[in-house]
């Protein structure tokens, strides 16, 4: 890369010129910021002004530009100069919109703007233009694991979008659960009758598709690599092994039915008591005629018990609702009514959950004469020719019983997610520590793995809750914590067939996005398109393993000397490794300990008698920084003593920034990140949690420095908290005022 | 101006000397001023009211109403059938809708009607007078006719049940209908804006059979009017008017309250606002005297 | 047990739901209840119902014939129609309650002496007689329905109310001599008799 040439562009539009001394800003950029070129413009995002910048890049060999105007989140299309490094000084949302009106505030407003220009110049000089991941690979094939409705849909959607697909299925035919059903819950108008599953037609389409290769009777033996270059070994039942290279993976391995034998109190395992899968088999055998039991008797009465072994709060069975079973029982009750309206069908439920258009389907079943009883089944007794269901009628509030030829238990979905890493990791640690027992356990557990990833973090994806492979049910569906691998269907969360097919379409699109980004050396969600990647000065590394352990995405392996090995393609660019590194050897080209550290140091620090405290605010760019921008947009006034720096994730905050700030005389440091814990909203899953943990360890440092612990505070902030962020800042400013200026100022 | 013509179904309680006779008195001047002409249906009969079901059952009840519809259809062709009593309106409209919807019911009803020498085609629309006022006359015309605005009068608009449910006035919510408040304001009075018993049931016909239970309802209705500073209650319903007015003395006797809240019809307000006197507005027909309204009417 | 009841039991055996569907006004809606309980919470006399509409529907499905038809619950209906407009399933609940009450009355299973039941009968008889309700005769019949002495007590207890209405010209003592009536009373009587006959033929 050629010599660095810097330029600063200072905008006076949007009332910036009225509220600020722009000439002074230019002088600061020139004298203190040492910008080689400084230009002012009254409308910097206009076509004319942007052309001036372009011309400077072309004719003046400018390589680094500082835009002092609005927030980095505004006017991104106008200020799009991918060929140069760029920093933004946020003078509009960050200064003139949030500092109180009136000339009495002119001084602090100008101070603030001056500092943001200083900071942007300081940052810029430490930035490099991201070059993209050098280790990228361009394989765009997509592997789909599982040939049920989800997998077939994902395969077909990806193939129809023009991508090659490899589909593996462990059984000898495609279709999964759907191929074992007599009919499916309706997914088309008028939502009144069970409909054909369509599984056979879908399987035929997939089999015949020129861009799809299907491997039946096959499982994964090993998966290695990263997005754009996954190597997979496929083990076939015959013992043969096939190797394929793919760019992304969709895991659509579905669910298993909860084991009926775990429900002896409801007759599980006894004759004339079956589960929904068992009933489907009977219905298929009947082929539209009156359904018969296994012993050949025509069924004249049937009871469906909902939530069998589900929504259990005793800790014995599944604690969750599987979502599809109410509609499935309604459908199965219709099998009976449609063949013979005189069959007594009772659906026994505590809460009937019929999502989507299910309410119409429910009504249709009522219309057909299916009886719905709100009751909790206590026991199923099988005697002679049938069953007696003893239950508590929850409306009539009495214990009663009903007889039936057959009882169907609506059991739940258990995800086929492979190895639970929470169980895996301690076994690996024990095995590595020499435990023979653990070594055996490790081998046995590994056999149950689906993906057989050779990652140091374990062979399958981390599970979010109850064994489901997901990273966030609401905010980031399909995203997992293994880059380039996407979960779809009931392995991700409990769901019905319609939801699974929609899910599969989403996951296919995610996989396509992943291979496209990977082929260009760019990051995947949530910094999709980011060209920066982490690099480490290994000569300074102490092999502490914090980065490899703390990476939420398993992107960092270790070599035999226990140095970190970055798999850039798996990396999400959150910087959690950078925040973790005690010796600060990890950095990104445009985001490093220095780019932030220099901004912290660039602030002009008033002395202890000035009555102008300085508060450093490190704000997560995903939620907190947008919330600050919105606070500006809404003109919520907050303290002009704050200096805000966006960070990629609180997980990237290296504690050196905190100690540097306090050492250089800041009176307080605020950290704003996403919600962490069980219902986390962190875009990088673990970042804000790690930051919180690290900050809790900083107390000792404070004691050494003789500082009050209140000098650093951490807040969870959501993107909607625009009024709250202003309030938090003002409260903290008041707090700093209360505890007084930092005693460190004298040493700064 | 040619008058709007309607087939009028007064109902039993509106007959001379009956419990809502003053209602009928009060609508005469109101209709006059608003260009509404009510033509009484000849030889109309009782609708069965809300309690007729017990002994009457389904078809006999429907047939009673079908007779009135058939009479209107025959004698006053082309006119909408209008009633001032919610129970009459409800029964008639329900009958008209059910018979028009189910051909077998219509056939059965006509089989019975034949015994009375009648036949129903099903062309008559059953409406409430309030619908005529709001939809045909409109608030603007209702306001125009005011000559004596009812200033400084704070009124709780008590809609009750059957004017409001199950049919109600088109465009109004069942939980908080606003038309009665608007009518109160149209004549220059102030409507209590947060009258929380607006659509509470007064007990209806159960005022007779379950007096304690319905008097509890009535107590809530009156108490809330007091709590909101109302000087009187206004209602579109005959049974509501009677129950809420008549039983206040009973409640006072049994529960030691000192209720003395006048309960009048919207039509009485309008008649007074249109310049009518005490008699014209039927204000001489009250057990609890609406003094303030009587004073205005007397001026 | 009256004949109608005996015949219904023989006809429907244990299938009370079907009996209700076929014989009770709007009874075919009962199966459509989704047991949300909004009706129970919306009834002004809700606390007075031993079994709320929601519960009655469940009892019908559970075949509790005797308990349902002998209950005085549905006689608590004030016909306020709150349940109808609030029912998310659009069940005509008020009508079903009326229908159940009527059916129980017809089978003579409704509670004896249930005041609303008695008044409903008095009211109907009163109106059918002349085609219009005679409020005075209705009131007197009401007071005397439990016998002469109780009638005097009832009438005395309500004397103030009655006299108030008389003074306000809203209760006419002269109605006792005849009062309002329809002209074609014969036609009305024949018409009602025919309707009853059709209904009896249809619904047993």
How would you describe this structure in keywords?
heterotrimer; A: 748 residues; alpha/beta; Rossmann fold; FAD/NAD(P)-binding domain; 5-stranded parallel beta sheet; 21 helices; B: alpha/beta; Glutathione S-transferase Yfyf (Class Pi), Chain A, domain 2; 4-stranded parallel beta sheet; 8 strands; globular
How would you characterize this protein structure?
- The complex is a heterotrimer of chains A (748), B (299) and C (204).
- By secondary structure, chain A is α/β, with parallel strands linked by helices.
- In chain A, 31% of the residues lie in helices and 20% in strands.
- In chain A, strands 13-19-14-15-16-17-18 form a seven-stranded mixed sheet. In chain A, strands 7-6-5-11-21 form a five-stranded parallel sheet, covered by helices on one side.
- In chain A, helix 2 (22-31) runs parallel beside helix 5 (106-125), helix 6 (149-160) crosses helix 7 and helix 17 (624-633) packs across helix 21.
- Chain B has 299 residues and is of the alpha/beta class.
- Chain B folds into two domains: 4-130, Glutathione S-transferase Yfyf (Class Pi), Chain A, domain 2; 148-298, Rossmann fold, CATH 3.40.50.
- Chain B has helices spanning 21-33, 53-56, 58-75, 86-101, 103-113, 129-137, 139-144, 179-186, 206-209, 211-227, 238-246, 248-255, 266-273, 291-298, and strands spanning 4-9, 36-40, 80-83, 126-128, 154-157, 190-191, 232-235, 263-265.
- A four-stranded parallel sheet of chain B has the order 2-1-3-4, sandwiched between helices. Chain B has a four-stranded parallel sheet with strand order 6-5-7-8, with helices on both faces.
- In chain B, helix 3 (58-75) packs across helix 4 (86-101).
- Chain B starts with a strand and ends with a helix.
- In chain B, 64% of the residues are buried.
- The mean pLDDT of chain B is 95.
- Chain C contains twelve helices and no strands.
- Chain C has two domains: 3-111, Alpha-helical ferredoxin (Fumarate Reductase Iron-sulfur Protein, Chain B, domain 2), CATH 1.10.1060; 115-200, no CATH class.
- Chain C has helices at 3-12, 16-23, 38-42, 53-61, 65-69, 82-86, 93-106, 115-130, 135-143, 148-157, 159-167, 185-203.
- The model of chain C has no long low-confidence stretch (mean pLDDT 89).
- With 204 residues, chain C is mainly alpha-helical.
- Chain C starts with a helix and ends with a helix.
- Classes of the chains: A alpha/beta (748), B alpha/beta (299), C mainly alpha (204).
- Chains in contact: A-C, B-C.
- Chain A binds chain C through residues 352, 362-363, 366-367, 369, 371-374, 393, 395-396, 400, and chain C through 17, 31-32, 34-35, 54-55, 58-59, 61-62, 64, 89.
